[in-house]
């Protein structure tokens, strides 16, 4: 008979055998450091769904566990990506976007509403775990010197980075926006990237307003660019490596499982090697469990929005934190927090996936398939 009180079974996995506790994942990197600096990120593209909620909770739970085990103070930095695309247009067969920040600036989106679910969750998890957090908007993030130094390195060494960052077509997606209407050329068809002395020059063209240039100085601030996920992700590890010295910190990124496995092997690890970051300065990457739909795929809010109950017969509360709280109250957060604590405590629970039905079974009064 299965002795586990949660009813789960645990297949043996390599990493769970290798570590006695999850803190072993960061123990060497934290040696002789005076603090832990943990980052996580999310696109501000609406209300967090169950997968995002559990990732953020696991991030706090793991940080609290690391901080306790190593007796080091910890801070959690939440990278709020307000550069998430919010409007899509196709003009002459090319794809263009405007992002959340631009639509907030033009009054088409409510910025507070856009971020409120995340802030509510972060504040709750911070209070529950005792780990302080700070929010870093993308506008501030993209100006940080190590992030721009990495951008300059990518611009300077495009032939080396293109196979990692754009293996399909070689077009590295760094995106300036039209200074007049803020439209961005999503697939970088019109883009020319130039590594100038102390700046990256981005030349592009707006279908309505013609050619323009964005100058991105490496060290003096000013300028703005968006970048797609692989570029941002490589800049992020470069930043975390630099922050080890800037803050005398053990830098840790904790993210959802999409960014482990193949992504880490094909994008991040080779990019760290190309950038010449010594292994002892590599930031530690920890990945939270994946929440699965009933077909074994990653639980996806966009698929739910597109296909509705045909995709997943779930209460809407599971796809939207605000509805979850309105329907099940704080008890739902408590139940998920308890689970995240188990993940943080036991390697065999951290390194596995969970079905949405399993998580639903933890929430008091939640009955899957019932309308919330
Ligand atoms: Zn324009």
> First CA to last CA: what distance?
34 Å
Average per-residue pLDDT, rounded, comes to 91
Element order, helices and strands? HHEHEEEHHEHHHEEEEEEHEHEEHHHHEH
**Strand residue content:** 15-25%
Largest sheet, order of strands side by side?
5-2-1-12-13
Largest sheet, described in full?
A: 5 strands, parallel
- What level of helicity do the residues show? 40-55%
The rough form would be described as: globular
Low-confidence sequence ranges: none
Descriptive notes:
The chain is α/β, with parallel strands linked by helices. 41% of the residues lie in helices and 21% in strands. The chain has helices spanning 14-18, 27-30, 50-70, 100-105, 111-129, 138-141, 145-156, 158-165, 229-246, 261-274, 301-307, 321-328, 330-345, 347-350, 356-362; strands spanning 35-43, 74-81, 85-91, 94-99, 133-137, 174-175, 184-185, 192-196, 199-206, 210-217, 226-227, 249-255, 284-287, 291-292, 354-355. A five-stranded parallel β-sheet has the order 5-2-1-12-13, with helices on both faces. Strand 1, helix 3 (50-70) and strand 2 (74-81) form a beta-alpha-beta unit. Helix 3 runs parallel beside helix 5 (111-129), helix 3 packs across helix 13 (330-345) and helix 8 (158-165) packs antiparallel against helix 10 (261-274). It binds zinc ion (ZN). The site of zinc ion has 7 residues, from loops.
